[in-house]
From TrEMBL, chains A, B:
Region of interest (Disordered), ranges: 662-685
Domain of life: Bacteria
InterPro entries xref list: 2Fe-2S_ferredoxin-like_sf, 2Fe-2S_ferredoxin-type, Beta-grasp_dom_sf, Corrinoid_activation_enz, Raco-like_middle, Raco-like_middle_sf, RACo_C, RACo_linker
Domain 2Fe-2S ferredoxin-type: 10-114
Protein name: Ferredoxin
Matches recorded under PROSITE patterns: 2FE2S_FER_2 (PS51085)
Amino acid sequence: MNAPLNIKDPLVLFMPSGKRGNFPLGTPVLDAARQLGVYVESVCGGRATCGRCQIEVQEGNFAKHKIVSSNDHISPKGPKEERYERVKGLPDGRRLSCSATIQGDLVVDVPQDTIINAQTIRKAAVDRHIERNPAIQLCFVEVDEPDMHKPLGDLDRLKVVLEHDWGFKNLQVAHHLLADVQKILRKGEWGVTASIHRDPEAEQPTIIALWPGLKNEAYGIACDIGSTTIAIHLVSLLSGRIVASSGTSNPQIRFGEDLMSRVSYVMMNPDGREAMTVAVRQAINELTDKVCTEAGVDRHDILDSVFVANPIMHHLFLGIDPTELGQAPFALAVSGAVHCAASDLALDFNQGARTYLLPCIAGHVGADAAGATLSEGPYRQDKMMLLVDVGTNAEIVLGNRNRVVAASSPTGPAFEGAEISSGQRAAPGAIERVRIDPATLEPKFRVIGSELWSDEDGFAESVADIGVTGICGSAIIEVVAEMYLSGIISEDGVVDGAMAERSARILPNGRTFSYLLHDGTPRITVTQNDIRAIQLAKSALYAGVKLLMEKQGVDHVDTISFAGAFGSFIDPKYAMVLGLIPDCDLSDVKAVGNAAGTGALMALLSRDHRREIESTVQKIEKIETALEPKFQEHFVHAMALPNKVDPFPKLAEQVTLPPRKVLADAAAEGGGGRRRGREGRRGRE
Amino acid sequence: MNAPLNIKDPLVLFMPSGKRGNFPLGTPVLDAARQLGVYVESVCGGRATCGRCQIEVQEGNFAKHKIVSSNDHISPKGPKEERYERVKGLPDGRRLSCSATIQGDLVVDVPQDTIINAQTIRKAAVDRHIERNPAIQLCFVEVDEPDMHKPLGDLDRLKVVLEHDWGFKNLQVAHHLLADVQKILRKGEWGVTASIHRDPEAEQPTIIALWPGLKNEAYGIACDIGSTTIAIHLVSLLSGRIVASSGTSNPQIRFGEDLMSRVSYVMMNPDGREAMTVAVRQAINELTDKVCTEAGVDRHDILDSVFVANPIMHHLFLGIDPTELGQAPFALAVSGAVHCAASDLALDFNQGARTYLLPCIAGHVGADAAGATLSEGPYRQDKMMLLVDVGTNAEIVLGNRNRVVAASSPTGPAFEGAEISSGQRAAPGAIERVRIDPATLEPKFRVIGSELWSDEDGFAESVADIGVTGICGSAIIEVVAEMYLSGIISEDGVVDGAMAERSARILPNGRTFSYLLHDGTPRITVTQNDIRAIQLAKSALYAGVKLLMEKQGVDHVDTISFAGAFGSFIDPKYAMVLGLIPDCDLSDVKAVGNAAGTGALMALLSRDHRREIESTVQKIEKIETALEPKFQEHFVHAMALPNKVDPFPKLAEQVTLPPRKVLADAAAEGGGGRRRGREGRRGRE
C-alpha cells in the first residue's frame, strides 16, 4: 500500500478481499480501496453522480481482526451524496465510497453483484464470484475549453485531463474517434465519458469510445463457439452481472456436420473458408441482437468481447484456413491469445469494441478447453482433477497445482447419437433415460417432452403428440450400460444370442443380435453395431485419460468434472459402468455445464484471468495421443466393459457389476469393418 | 557501451558518429556498432545474405584518436562473405560488418547513402544527412517447424524467434497477417522476413508485414499536402535514398480555391467533408502510383508514411470536419502527432503500412510549419532565425535554442497573384522578373518560358507562342518594389499622378493612377488597388513577424529562411525593399524550398526526429495575432514602404532607397473599401 503506515490512523479492512491498511482520518473510502488495490468501480471520478462506487459498512466487533466497525466511523452523507440518494436512490446501508470518508476503524463490504445466471450455466457453479478487473474502464472527465493562447487540440486536452484525473499515460485513440471528438465534446458541454481499453498485453491504453456527458453502463460479450452450438452471454462490465444469455445452432453445420467435413469443405471449395467465416460471424451478430433485445441494451454499448472455440472453429472465426489442422502435425496458425478489434472480425458492436480469444492448448485442444481449464482450475488446487469436455473430439485435462497435462481423444460423434442406428439429437421424442429389469430384460424409458416413465400410467397419452422417435446421447450411454448390467451383453460388448430364449426383445440381425427397446413407429433397437460404436468412442476417451494418468504417475483421479452439454445430461454412474471415465467416488463426479463459456466470462470480467490462463496454457504439457505408443494398448483394453484390466473398486461399492461373461466375438467380425484408422476420425466433431 | 572495457582490447572508432569503444578480438564489427548504438542496417541477422551492413575500414594513422587503422586489423573475408561478393557483388573496400571481425584498432566508416535529391528540394540543403532510425525494421528469421510435442502455433514460433534473434518482446501482429502466416512460412520453407513497426509512442512492437524468404527492400512515403500542391517523396527505408519524387495539384481546388472557401464548402454541403477527404486521399494514391512506376517499386512495399499539412488540409485528410478551424477560437480536433494505419486513411500501400502525421503547432500553424521547423531547426542553434512559410496564411516561426515563438498571419492570396488585376499563377507567359529604369520609368521584364529580358533582341519571337499573359507572385513583389525604388509610388504606396508628365506609362484610372507594364494583349497594368493588396498582405506578414520579435525581445533577426514555393522564387532583396521581411544581411536570407516536406522526410527516416519535433512543438509559444493589441499598430506602420518606423540599415547598405515622398492619399479612399476586417481574411490560402 502507498499510504503512510501509521498505527494511530484508523484501520480499514475490505471484504471479501481481506485487504487492509491504515489511513489518515478523512481519507475517502474509495481512495483507501484504490491504494490497497481493491477494485471498486467508479465512472464519475468522485463526483457522486455515477453511483458505481457503493460500499457497505459492516457493524460489529470483529475480534479476529481487532476491529470495532460502526457506521459512526464513516462520515455522514454530505450534500453531493444526499443529492445522489434523492435523485437516483441508494439502498439501505449503502454509501458512495467516493464521498464517504474514514472517521475510525472500519470493515467495509464491497458488494459483489457478479452472479452467473443459474439457468444458462446448467448445473454449474451458481453464485460463482468473479473478482472484476475488466479491460474496459469508463471515465467521466471535464475537459478544458479551447484557448487561443494554448492551442492544444480538443483531443489533446481530453488526453491531458484523462492523465490528470485517471492516471493514463501515453493514451492512444481509436482512429474513428478523431472525426467525432469535437462534436461529442461540444454536445457534452466539455463533460464526456471516455472508455479506455487497458490491456498491456495488447496495446497501450486506448480511448475506444466517447460519449457526451456521463455514460454509466457498458457491456461485454462472452461467447463459446461450439461446432454444433454457439452460446453467448451479455454481461454488464460495470457490475459483472449477466443480463441475458442465448444460444443458436452453428450455421456452419450446412457446410459439414462435423469438424473434419468442414475442413474438407474448405479444401474442396475456393470460397469455402470465407463462407464459413461469414456464417459464424453473422450468427454471432444475430445472437447479439437477440440478447440485446431481450435485455433492452443498445448493441453499440458493447465494448469488449471474449471468445472460446475449438481450434477449427477458432481459426474459421478468425478467418484462417484450418486445412493445416486437418493433418499431422496439426499446426495451429496461432496458439497464443489473440487481441484484436471487434471490427476486424466484422462484429457489429461499438465501433471501438475490442475482442480477446483465449489461447489454444494444442492443435486439437482449443481455446474452449483453455476456457474450461480457467473455469474449473485444476491448477488452482491440490486434488488430481480430471476435466473432460465431451464434444466430439473429447478434450481432456488432468492435473493439480503441481502439473497439468492435456490431450484430445478422437471419440467421434457416437456420443451425440450419430453413427447409432436409432440415434438422434436431444429433442422432444428422443429417449433420454433407460432402465432394464435384469430379471425380465424388459425396459422402461423416459422421453424428452414427458415427465413419465414408459411403464407409468398415462405415458402413451403424454407422448401422443411428440412420439418416441429415437435415442439421444445420454440414453445411448444408459441403454448400453443397462444391457451390460442386465447381462444382455458380455464384458466384450457382444449381445448374447442365447438370451433370445429368455426374451423376445433379443432379435437376430444377420450374424449378430439386437435389443428391441421400443416396438413402435419407428421401431427402436440397439444393434451390435451401435454397441461397437459406443465401445470405440468410449475406449478412445478412456485411453486418452489413461495416457494422461500415466504421465501424471497416478492410478486414480480424485475428482472428475464433466463439461459440455453431453456432460450435463449423462448419469456419471452409467458413464463409469461403461468405463468411459476412470473409477472415482461418484460424489466426486460433477457436471460443470458450459465451463468453456464460464472461462470466457471470467476472461471478460478480469484481465487477471487472461494472464492466468495464458501462463497456465504455456505450462500445460500437451500429449499427442497419436504419437504415444501405449495408446493402442489402452484403447484395446478399454473396449471391454468397463475395462479389460483396470479395476473399478469405487464403482463396485455402489453398483453390482455382472460376473464376467466372455462370448465368441462373432460380432467383432461384423463390426470390424467400421473400425477405421484413428487418423480418419481425428478432428471429427 | 556494454562490452567490458579492457584497454588491451582493440579500439574501434565509428565514423561519422564518432562513437568509440574497446572490443575483444574477434568481435563482429556489427556487434560492436550495436553495442555503441551506432545504427547499421541489417535484415538477414548476420547471415551475410542481405548486404545491408556494409562498412569501410579507413586506413592510416589517426593521431588525434591515437588509432593506427588498417585492413590488416579486420578479419579476411570468410566463405559466407565471399559467397555474397561472388553472387551480389561488393564495392571495393566494402566489408559486411556481420562477418568481418575486429583483429586490431580500427577506424570504421559507416557509408551514408542518404542524399536528398537536389532537384526536388529546390535550392534546399543538398547532401543533407539524416541519421536513420526508422520506425520500420526488416528482420529475416528461421522459424522452427511445427512439432506435435510442442504444439505452439506457427505465429507463436515466429514470435519466439523474433524475440530470440532480434530482441522484440511482447510482439503484436497486424490482424490481417493471421490468415496468411501459415502459407508464408511454408512458402519460405520456414525462412521469412518480418517487418516490425516499432514506435513506442504509437503501439507495442508489431509485425505489420511478412514475406517468404529474404525481403531486402522497404519503402516509405513523405508527403506535404499543400492547399494548392501535394508533393511526395518515395524513399528507401533501408538506405534513406529518395528514389522518386513528384507533385500534383490538390484536387480539392475544385471545391474552393482557398482554405476558407473549402471550409465554407463543408459547412454548406452535407457530403462536402467526405468529398474533399476522398479527393485528397485519392490524389495521394495516384501520386504514389506515379512515383512507384517511375522508380519501379511495388506500392505494396511501402510500409511507412509521414504527412505534413496545414491544419485544414490535415483535418480533411484525416476525415475531420474543419469547421471549428474557420472561426475563433480556431480549435483543432487534434494537435498532437497522429499515428494510425495507412489503411485507416484509405491509402493503398502495404496492407499493414503505418502513417504518422507531425503535430500541428496551433489552429493556423500546422504540421507543415512543424515540418519546416524540424527541417530548419531554429531550436538547434544559437542565432535568432526567422522561418517564414508564405503559403497564403504565412506561418512564421522565430527563435533559437533558448526559445521559439510562432504565429500565422493572414496575408491572403495576393502574393500568389490572386486579387491582383493582372495576376496569374506561375505558368508560361507569366511575368516573373521586372526592372524599372528610374530615369525613364521604362520597364523590362522576363516571362516564364523565355530566357530573354523584354528589351533583348529576339524577345518577341521567344514569347510568340506563349504570349505575355499576366504577373505571377514573384514579379508582383518586384514590380511594386521597383515602382517604389524608381519613385513611381511614394513611401505610402500611392502612385504619383504627377509622374504622368514624365512617362506615358503612368495612366489615370478613375481617382487613382496605374502603371502600364506591358502594352500588349492583354494590357498588363499595376493598379493602385494592386499595390494596396500587396501592402495589406506584406503588412500582415511583417506585423506578425514584429509581434514575434517583440515576444523574443529582439530588434533584428540574424537569419531568415524562406520556405515554400513562393519563397524559392522571390528575390530577398525586393522582399526586403517592400518591407515584407525585417532588415537582415541579404546573405543571411535563404530560400529553403519545401522545408515542410523535408521535415516529413526526416520524421520518416528517424523516430528520433519524431520525438524531437513533438517535444519542440510542445515548447513553442504560440502567438495568436488576432488577440495581440499591438498587431494593429504594427500593421499600420508596415503599410509604408519598407516601414513607417522601422529602419532597414543593412538593406540601405546594399540598395539605394528613395528619399521620403508623401503624397495625399487619394488612393486610400478609393482602396479603403477593399480593406476588409482581418477576420474575413483569416484562413484564406
